[in-house]
Amino acid sequence: MFSNIMSFGLCGVEAFPVSVEADISDGLPGFIMVGYLAQEVREAQERVRASFKNSGFRLPPRKITVNLSPAGVRKEGTAYDLAIAVSVLCCLGQIAPESVNGSAFIGELGLDGSIKPVRGVLPRAYAASKLGIKRVFLPAENVREGMAARGLEAVGAGSLKELAQLLADPASIKGSWFDDSLFPGEEDPEFDMDFDEIRGLATVRRASEAAVAGKHNILYIGPAGTGKTMAARRLATILPPLSLEESMELSKLYSICGLLTADRPLVRMRPFRSPHHSATAAALTGGGRNPRPGEISLATHGILFLDELAEFPPPLVDLLRQPMEEGRIVVSRSSRAVEFPADPLVAAAMNPCKCGFYPDLGRCRCSEAQIRRYLGRISGPFLDRIDIGVEVPLPPKFVGAGGREKGESSAVMRQRVMEARKRQEERFAGERIRFNGQMKARQIERFCPLSKADQAFLEDVYRRLPFSIRGQEKILKTARTFADLDGKEEIGREQLMEAVAFRSFERSYWGFRFGE
Tens digits of per-residue pLDDT, 121-137? Predict the structure, then answer.
């Protein structure tokens, strides 16, 4: 007898349909599995045998053949166990084939017949919904994650025996459907920190606000203890709420990594990821034998914060250059290439030298060679991808609790950010970008026009400060964001001067690269 059950596999962040075919025929008794399978998938036959015995089902001494199609695509993971078991039960007549029509099965089997939770349920359920499948059977712990896919009924089961009883009486099946309460609302998220705790440092606040509004990569540089990390960690407090589309994309990534839980089926807040400088390349950019997303992907639609940037190994920092430019990362293996989204706002913080006081030569105790060696750990091409560089200075005098006037709250700053982003949304309607920081040459020419006087001013700046072509474009993109924050339709001299000032950090600290 033959049966065909639907399941789903994972390739990167997307799922693909897998047809689990089973056939029981005469011949030498055996359990044969085919279809380009990883070792953990082949081991499913032993899990199925044991779970059948402990669930009260009997496997006859006949030849059982299971094929996972398409046979040319490698299948990995343990999520096929449930589909394999159900397909065999259909062949044995324990489950009526019509009761599984239009359904998919995802889950791992325990030897005692229990159905265990698996990673990557959300992208699988989402793919099933897109294919028109109306019902998916899942481990009970994964139901809330599965019901996040619209148009799909998620049915949970704790054991193989319980599942067989449900399928024996299809009228008794009552699953869960999409619930709006799972998704992020428009209310302001709660944080235990706020920008109003940063007293003074007006340029730091202005730079931070512009970075978030236009999605510009930002570098905080200055002596230790001046508030670099403090400012960077508060970037998350002025980010707008996640949209439905962003939440789904981000939740797929977290589902693959097993970071979603039964009480947290979707990512509802923008991520803030801060990897330690001892992280490996695979941890930062993604990889492994079975490629998984790295920190830069898990920070998509949020903040990737690199604290103590100069302590990261230079090759590791340079790995970020391509995803910072393209918003995606491709992990290549000999058998396949997997693409992950990698589109965070990159924020970094660093001291200008080992002692932290350069370029204040009255305080700095580092030699010229030590300073060059320390700053030289950050490559020019990486710095070229930083839109805004802001110096965080030492306070001019002692500042105790309440020693400076309290600044604006994160709520006030976030409101300006959301208004600026709304202007960008209207501006880029019909374009394939959403933020000023993503503009290419064609969009810059169209959306960043300058008056003749301002054009002459900028040309004079370029003659005295030889920025790269990318650096020149970043000045215009950042100036466009400053204009949006100020509610200006056109870029003015004030916004241009701000953008130039925030792009001058490279010459101020890395001037030796320009022969200074």
Answer: 999 999 999 999 999 99
Contact 364, 355 (CB under 8 A): yes
CA distance 149 to 375: 48
**Roughly what angle, to the nearest 10 degrees, separates helices 469-485 and 202-214?**
100
Cα–Cα distances in angstroms (integers) from residue 125 to residues 11, 120, 155, 228, 436, in the given order: 14, 9, 11, 42, 34
Cα separation values, 361 from 99, 200, 376, 389, 412, Å: 79, 24, 19, 21, 38
Q: What is the DSSP string of 400-424?
A: -TT-S-----HHHHHHHHHHHHHHH
Torsion of CA 316, 318, 324, 328, to 10 degrees: -60
Q: What is the largest CA-CA distance in the chain?
A: 90
* Secondary structure element (H or E) that encloses residue 78, with its range: none
> Do the beta carbons of residue 31 and residue 81 sit within 8 Å?
no
pLDDT tens track for 151-166? 899 999 999 999 999 9
Are 348 and 309 contacting, i.e. CB atoms less than 8 angstroms apart? yes
Token pair of 102 as six digits: 């239009």
| Residue 199 CB coordination number (10 Å) | 15
Q: Are 207 and 502 in contact (CB under 8 A)?
A: yes
| Predicted TM-score of the model (pTM) | 0.89
> Which residue matches tokens 């897998």?
18
Cα distance between residue 397 and residue 514, in whole Å: 34
C-beta pairs of 318-323 under 8 Å, 24+ apart in sequence = 318/379, 318/381, 318/382, 319/281, 319/284, 319/285, 320/284, 320/285, 320/296, 320/346, 320/382, 321/381, 321/382, 321/385, 323/285, 323/296
- N-terminal to C-terminal alpha carbon distance within the chain: 81
The answer to whether 103 touches 146, Cβ cutoff 8 Å, is no
As a whole number of angstroms, the distance between CA 126 and CA 218 comes to: 35
2-181 CATH: 3.30.230.10
The candidate with the shortest Cα–Cα distance to 157, out of 136, 177, 178, is 136
In the 8-state DSSP scheme, what is residue 266? S
pLDDT (tens digit per residue) in 264-300: 888 888 999 999 999 999 999 988 777 889 999 999 9
Q: Which are the contacts of 397, defined by CB distance < 8 A and separation ≥ 6?
A: none
